[in-house]
Specification:
three-stranded antiparallel β-sheet, seven-stranded mixed β-sheet, homodimer, about 15% strand
Chain lengths: ~350, ~350
């Protein structure tokens, strides 16, 4: 394990990304999104992704120069093409536009096509909540969930993400519609760990503890047809509506360095102040949170949490005390420094 | 069992509702929504609810005379008060307004406060899809899910509902964020049947097969904190945002005939044609559906379905062949006819 200061880690990732042609501003955003995931404890979407992101930039299968086109625009909607730019940059631009237009109209949906992996959905939803918006957002991803009745994957572990502001930290739900995200299976494989039964199925639909078999198979949707249905609708909004690829047609981030992924995202922002008094909303939401936290606790439970609270607490602690990087991820980052000629100063 | 023609059933329910002061139009809508649930096979939200609806109208705890006030309105949002009118009538008015405003702006959210139980969420989402909209909608409901870490309920089995149009039947997801809706536990109790382990917990948080114990306790959320989080956000949109009651503050439909429930709902409509070509959207969605249905099937599976398809097929079959009402529900309806002086003509 290596204890790393989060800002030093972000700075290093930013420099690495700049070697592949990203502007300082875009590289900062991508690095911030990745380090934010590590701060929150969502290591599957953190700096462990730097190797693949840099490889995709280096091979040119992702455009380093950001280009975002507004293809259709109305008072409460916009359809963007990311023109194969980095997913984070496109997603941030899209959520900013949704917030701006919702501020005028009350509500706005922005879709993005021809994009790439955008990291952790909560990064964008939280940014909308910090501007006093409610947000619903999502993305599609390459397939790893089988529709009920088949053992062949069709939809991805497309996140369902929602956020709401309080006077303090926003409430943020960012969940894969599966028992765990495929990212956790991938990370277990990388760390050489086994996975619990019930997380993943082999390509033949059999339960497995081997993350490498799970990566070739599927992850288990929550509530059976319910998790499959949630994932499908996230793809309808992200892929079918936006004009991006959908289902198994998405490019594979890990193995295909020829064809752009053509990922799609969507962001719905709701301006709370257009529907009710903002202070009243926050006060009522804080009452709700307070009541939940004051419920009688089950045996062995020391605290009841609301969505995103554990991640927020981890983030504060890791900002103060440093991020613990595993040897595997640390060594990968060191190798990237060698490869791309950036001094690793931690 | 009694085989009943769906239109005769709807007409009878409409007449019963009119005896309690509902207009012919409003009574038709409520009856249509209930019978639609029975047609779809969602008996928990069907005509088995007539007794409680009529009792609430008769006691005056629900207003029979519809009054809907638009409290705030912007190009892509509106906040309504249902003034304690019937939930179905308020919900239909709200989704219609969301569709109308989305047609102008691209997207619209409409909230409703001071409402009542609105039946099956998919009734409204489907109606939006039939007008070429994507829809996300929900409602809150009295508490029956315990936040993770407690065995005391705080949020309801608030449905998560989404719909999308095709050239044929819309795709409609309408799911409780629990393994089953409390309505299924209630129906099992009414029919004197036991429930499978894993559906519900007793008031002490213990698994139970007794639906009466389950009704006093909680139902199990899908994916643990994920189902709890989904339910919480449906209440944030439906209750906290709209200005309705939320969590355990909602009035109880079954036992409280003094205080209005003050239920909240929300409806987001997205005009597909503002974001992409509508025909392209439908063709792409149909491609997706076709590909899913053509996936290799697991052993013993004769067909793979998309969300809402099973309900749609049931509806077509029951329209043709009649609805099978249980003796319990049939006898309840007969008793209502006696009580309110309506001839039961089937």
């Amino acid at each position: 394990m290596h204890n790393i200061n989060w800002e030093a880690l972000r700075g290093y990732c930013q420099k690495l990304l700049m070697t592949q042609g990203l502007s300082a501003e875009d590289a900062f955003l991508v690095a911030d999104c990745l380090v934010d995931a590590d701060l929150c404890g969502v290591e599957s979407h953190g700096v462990s992704r730097m190797t693949i992101y840099l490889k995709r930039l280096e091979t040119g299968v992702v455009n380093a120069k950001t280009q975002i086109e507004v293809e259709r625009e109305h008072p409460a909607s916009a359809a963007l093409s990311a023109c194969n730019s980095m997913g984070m940059v496109a997603a941030k631009r899209a959520v900013d536009l949704a917030v701006e237009k919702a501020r005028e109209s009350g509500c706005c949906i922005v879709t993005v096509r021809n994009s790439n992996h955008f990291g952790m959905a909560s990064y964008y939803a939280r940014s909308a909540a910090e501007r006093d918006m409610l947000c619903i957002c999502g993305t599609n991803a390459p397939p790893n969930i089988a529709p009920t009745g088949s053992s062949k994957s069709y939809v991805g572990t497309n996140p369902v993400c929602m956020s709401a502001p309080t006077h303090g930290a926003p409430i943020v739900l960012d969940m894969a519609p599966s028992v765990v995200a495929m990212g956790k299976v991938i990370l277990a494989a990388k760390l050489g760990k086994s996975i619990p039964l019930g997380w993943a199925l082999t390509a033949d639909g059999k339960p497995t503890e081997d993350p490498n078999e799970g990566m070739k198979g599927t992850v288990v949707p929550i509530g059976g047809p319910k998790g499959y249905g949630l994932s499908l609708f996230m793809d309808i909004f992200s892929g079918v509506l936006s004009g991006a690829k959908f289902g198994p047609h998405l490019g594979n981030m890990w193995h295909d360095f020829t064809n752009p992924q053509d990922v799609g995202h969507f962001f719905i922002a709701v301006d709370i102040s257009k529907l009710t008094d903002l202070e009243t909303f926050k006060t009522r939401l804080e009452q709700m949170v307070g009541e939940i936290k004051a419920l009688p606790r089950s045996e062995g439970v020391s605290e009841i949490f609301v969505p995103g609270e554990i991640e927020h607490n981890r983030k504060e602690a890791r900002k103060a005390n440093g991020i613990e990087l595993s040897d595997v991820v640390y060594d990968e980052l060191a190798a990237l420094g060698e490869r791309y000629g950036v001094k690793m100063d931690f």
